Amino acid sequence: MDHSAGWRRASPAGGIAVLLLATGAAPAASAQGAAPPAPAPPPGIFGQATFPGKQRPPGDPAVIARGEALFGINCKACHGGDLRGGDLGGPNLLRSALVLGDQGGEAIVPVVQKGRPGTQGGPPMPAFPLSLADAQALSEYIHSVVGRKQNQGGPPPEPPKPLNILVGDAGRGQQYFATHCRECHAADGDLKGIATRIPNPASLQDSWVAGRRTGAPGAGAQPAPRTGVSVTLNTGATVQGTLRHLDDFTVSLVTAQGEYRSFTRQGAQAVGAVEVQDPLQQHRNLLTRYSDQDMHDVTAYLATLK
Amino acid sequence: MNIPSRSGSVRIRVATVLAACIAVTSGGRAADPAPALPPLLPPAQLLQPLGESWPTYSGDYSGRRYSSLHQVDRSTVAHLSLAWTTRLNGEVRDGQARSPFAPPSDLITSVGGEGKGDYAIPPPAVKGAVLQVDGVLYVTSPDNAWALDARSGAEIWHYFWRTRGGTHIASRGPALWNSSLFFETPDDYLVSLDARTGHENWHVQIAEFADEYFSTMAPVVVGNHLLVGTGNDSDAPGLLQSFDPATGALQWRRYMVPMSAKDPALATWPSLDAARHGGGQVWMPGSYDPQTDLYITGTGNPTPGYTGVARKGDNLYTCSLVAVRVATGEIAWYYQTSPHDTHDWDSAQTPILFDGTIDGKPRKLVSTAARNGYFFTLDRVTGEHLTTYRFGTTANWSRGTRPNGQPDPNPDKSATIPGSLVSPFEGGVTNYQAAAFNPDTGLFYTHENTGFNILYLTDPDPRGSMGLGGKRFSIVGYTGNAFQAIDYRTGKAVWRHVWPGNGGTGTGVLTTATGLVFTGDTNGNFVAMDAADGRLLWHTGIGNISAPPETYALDGQQYVLASVGDTLYSFVLN
């Protein structure tokens, strides 16, 4: 992963306009005489919103609605109701180079009206006797769906599918819990009612595996547990507190009195031992030991703690 | 064929265009500067051992990032101190005074591009190579290129590209051929500049923007070939291309997935349709072996990335090392480091070429540490497999290695509806960060990032999802970051330095003939280590290093260069 934080305008206002001669790039909107579109909002972290399929101005809703109806009648059986391909072998239109390269129906309409031989080993596309206006409405509808694709090539968002993640055995999960977790956690203590506080099983699983605080009953939300540190000074004394920073060269902490302190770990004045007390160390250790079955079993068990 | 688009530029259907039909979209000026000035970097010079300049992405063709400069060594490194620092300026400047108190500047940004310039783009960030030739540094960031004085950091010229859009994730750096500087843009152009002035020579489109390609790779010059890769997350085929560095004319195109029924690699895909949407992007520079004339590159993940159900099979040539003949683009050999990947773990890392000894015999070798957590050594002439080792200490997605050394994916560790606990993270044990190899120690240096996430399948559609969709992952724990010095013969770490704390991803590596390793730790320090044992010898807390460190020499002085976002730091012995 490579994240770029922070976005800014491309240039000081007017800088580009003064300097640049047009190169013939004419966006669809201004070519049609409409007002120039407002500056695009800053794109998402991966900038996918700036690909051509999402740069199109919104089409006429009435035309798109007619195109959608025509798609249902003529196209859905082969290309799928979501345009992602169907049982009869029609290709996924949302990643079709022909669709993505089409500007205003010039590529799509002839294929709809005249058909074409099968490509890439698929079945042939039959001709559909649609009027030019109807074939173009189909094209507008297809582009409207392409425009709803998600970042990094993901398909348009759909309502979440009801997926059952509770596949584990709660009885086995209870045994696992008794062996591995009970030293720190109790079903009738900190975890009482956890399945009520976190009703979504996937969120429950994410939380317990990561060791996130979920709030004991009546205690409200609790801050995340803090990593402690104990630093042994040259004098032999120790300073303890909440860890703020640790690398090979310095260590810093905040004491129980709220005092910030930092120490060098290099050279003649280097402190001695630096012992980190990570409240999640046991969770980290278990990560390398769970099987997926163990994890699902414990989730199934915790889901019973309502 | 070329299809004129409504924008007036030349559209290139990457799947169908003929090599001869590439057209230059603007300018048309010759690539060479006025004859009075000699070429800055004749391509034959790239065959010389790495010395005082840093003329390519990795310094030289081998990818070793091994410098022969010896002023900075184990004892003097403690005296390394700042020579200069400079912050890249991405503003388009027109020479006018910017305030009543400042004199007019004679620095005028050269501007090109096919867009309108109305997109917000990320601030400058150095995430790739900075070239150093004849006292000038050449730096890129998406839509920007600069020349800086390598002695002072002072800006010499700035070029700005008005984008059409696209994924502005990084620019991995420029390439230099004679006096032309090349870089790729997120909206899929290859731009040629006059390296002395920053004025544009020409630009050509290298991939179809509508198909959601975005281009970040540092081009690679081999003789009169300019090797160019591009990126895509949206089920489009990956490709490596060679262009004429003088004119921008296409010389050949090599797809990394089967594009026709004749391709024998189609046996590793269920259908031609799946293969033609199967990814395998080429987005990092490869390495080049002049003895065999082979360009060895890594390739990216197959697509759809997380849902492999509709692309059953090994999915060649995704997640592979591929040796390509530079003259023709033919594949001489390949080795797939991650068969049927379902975790977005590209194997695009720059491979490292070196000579070594295996079982008492001298061998010509190539090694790579892949994002999936496995280290490989192969014979670079034949592609024969020699070593596989799991250097990602918690990687849990393979159920064992195949007889040819390939890790065999455990299908249970793909995204599943109830969640699978997977290590490493999506970002991998390592990623694009450049590794290094030191022939004196015989060690391969790489970061190791470890941790676990739960990977949920959210779209169980039998057709698979699209792009990187259809999944959700939840990070459930970091388990530590380290730096490894790996014995190429066994893959095992001879030493391993654990970075204190959790988080961070480390950065690229530089190693020297004086027994040093330079890299960034995961806590905002630029560090020098003893290449033999990992002892920390020097550090400076300038922030998280964003580009792999480099070194160069001028006027009898050795400089060590590091970049943190938009700021460059150059260190010398004072």
Radius of gyration of CA atoms of chain B, rounded to a whole number: 23 Å
Strand content of chain B: 35-45%
Strand order of the largest sheet of chain B: 3-35-36-37-38
Round the mean pLDDT of chain B to the nearest integer and report it.
93
For the termini of chain B, the CA-CA separation is 59 Å
- Decide which structural class fits the backbone of chain B: mainly beta
Tally the beta strands of chain A: 5
Shape of chain A: elongated
Assembly form of the protein: heterodimer
Judging from the principal axes of the Cα atoms, what is the shape of chain B?
globular
Topology:
The complex is a heterodimer of chains A (306) and B (574).
Chain A: H1 15-19, H2 28-31, H3 52-55, H4 61-74, H5 76-79, H6 97-101, H7 108-114, H8 132-146, H9 170-180, H10 194-197, H11 201-210, E1 228-232, E2 238-246, E3 250-254, E4 260-264, E5 274-277, H12 281-287, H13 292-302
Antiparallel strand pairs in A: 1-2, 1-5, 2-3, 3-4
Helix pairs in contact in A: 4-8, 7-8, 9-13, 11-13
Chain B: E1 2-4, E2 10-12, E3 66-67, E4 80-87, E5 110-112, E6 131-133, E7 136-141, E8 144-149, E9 155-161, E10 175-177, E11 180-184, E12 189-194, E13 200-205, E14 213-214, E15 220-222, E16 225-229, E17 231-232, E18 239-243, E19 250-255, H1 272-276, E20 287-289, E21 294-298, E22 320-325, E23 331-336, E24 352-358, E25 361-369, E26 374-379, E27 385-390, E28 398-401, E29 407-409, E30 420-422, E31 436-438, E32 443-457, E33 471-487, E34 493-499, E35 510-512, E36 516-520, E37 526-530, E38 536-540, E39 547-554, E40 557-564, E41 567-573
Jot down its keywords.
heterodimer, A: 306 residues, alpha+beta, five-stranded antiparallel sheet, 13 helices, 9% strand, elongated, disordered N terminus, B: 574 residues, mainly beta, five-stranded mixed sheet, 41 strands, 39% strand, globular
